[in-house]
Write a structure and sequence with these properties.
151 residues, mainly beta, OB fold (Dihydrolipoamide Acetyltransferase, E2P), two-stranded antiparallel sheet, 5% helix, extended
Length: 151
């Protein structure tokens, strides 16, 4: 399981059999304290390969909807391939994805109007200058008392 951001746009290719395969790279951040107690942050990079199957167009969907910087959650298996190039043995370890979930999209609302739920449950239209207004619920300003939590 890997959750991270794409480091490049996905590449979609067709195999000789006609099956589509999509490849991209994910960056994940790891935060830890070193021996001196200083906070360190390191990025790890993971090569991801997604195949289409007869039941899903997962590779095509990844190429269509993911872009550099998008977040994605990938479940799959590790695989190391090897080949020889100019007499030198090359290796590549990658995650062969069984499942890819797209993360939240960055940016604001692009259309001039968008529907947002109201308290009555019926959609209302937000347009013009109000489209960038927060649609999150209003949270109380007082601190939560742990004794008030029922579990």
């Amino acid at each position: 399981m890997v959750f991270g951001n794409l480091t490049r746009d996905p590449e979609l290719k067709a195999l000789p059999s006609g099956m589509q395969v999509c490849s991209f790279s994910l960056a994940t951040n790891r935060v830890f304290n070193d021996r001196d107690g200083k906070r360190q942050e390191i990025a790890d990079y993971h090569n991801i390969v997604v195949f289409d199957t007869q039941f899903s167009k997962q590779a095509e969907n990844c190429a269509k909807y993911l872009t550099k910087g998008s977040s994605a959650y990938v479940e799959g298996r590790m695989q190391t391939r090897s080949w020889e190039k100019d007499g030198v043995k090359m290796y590549r370890t990658e995650v062969v994805a069984d499942r890819v979930q797209f993360g939240p999209r960055s940016g604001g609302v692009t259309p001039t109007t968008a529907t947002t739920p109201t308290t009555a449950g019926t959609p209302s239209t937000v347009s013009g200058d109000d489209r960038n207004a927060s649609v999150l619920p209003d949270y109380p300003e007082e601190d939560i008392n742990p004794d008030d939590i029922p579990f």
